[in-house]
Amino acid sequence: MPYRVNPYLITRSLHPENQETPIHFLRQPAIPEEYFFKRNHFFYPVPGQNSYQLQVKGKVTKSVNFHYDELQRMPSRKLKMVLECAGNKRSKFKPKVYGEQWEDGAISQGEWQGIPLNTLLAVTGVDPDVREVVFEGYDTGRRTDINEVVPFARSLPLQKALHPDTLIAYKYNGKPIPFKHGFPLRLIVPGWYGMASVKWLKTITLIDETFKGPFQTIDYVYYPDENSSLKAYPVSIINVNSIIQQPLDRSVIEQDAEHIIEGIAWTGKGDIKQVQVSFDKGKVWREAILTNTSSTAYGWTKWHINWKPPEIGEYTIQARAVDSAGRRQPEKALWNKKGYGFNAVSEINVKTE
Length: 353
Prior knowledge:
CATH class of the largest domain: Alpha Beta
Distance between the termini: 31 Å
Radius of gyration: 21 Å
Low-confidence stretches: none
Order of helices and strands: EEEEHEEHEEHEEEEHEEEEEEEEEEE
Number of strands: 23
Number of helices: 4
Shape: globular
Strand order of the largest sheet: 4-3-12-7-8
Helix content: under 10%
């Protein structure tokens, strides 16, 4: 009997723990939790009894502490969705930028279950002058740039917070969320990069001003100008993007055979309408076959195309996706000094023999 070979997470750092999903080797529509990418800014928090309480406070009619068991008894929703780190593919930027040098695997997909946040806010009430909702996690640490110990905290505009698909989740793929992915409670914000989906959720605070936390105003901001904050704007909605899963980059393949070129495409706006593939560095584009276009509003779309190399040699294979909002992967990603949102045309090189 042959040995069963399984892929491994790809480690980018140990302290804090940051690991990539082996995305080129997985075909499941829901990524198992053991292969879900890990993105942390600090060490893991130490769980305690208070972890099972979620306080909603601030500009509300009444502050309420919701218990974990109470939340599980409320009407819930299930969403299958992509969760992508804003720094996914950072290693591909030219010139290079500082930060975790993610390749293609800071992305995963699965089913989250929880209570719409608007259900909780209907209980607490919302003051008419509320502008943003702040979400604070139990994970804390020292930021050397400001020399302060801070929690990981982010805000959402009130309109996004009230969207029926913004969830306070307690399950992933039908089981309690694994501790390393936010147990017991995690905010889930479909269509936005993963920094918005705060883990180990501690408090929710409604405010009548603009939140100024460092993970909102220093990190997760696009800085197109390397030397200033001119034209800076916040990271939010996921860019239209794609990955060529197989063959792998720098593969050697048979010339006298037909090959399946396959991958995934995703977007934070609408859905994927088209994936095009080129085998001649963009001179001619062929349309790929999309295989799960109606499976979920927030999930990735699988695609494939058959190809037989015309002769022995080296080839560049490129893929680009188009979404229903009219966004197309550009030839070159918008360079920014923190390395967010890379979504240039996907590209691999293969050699035939």
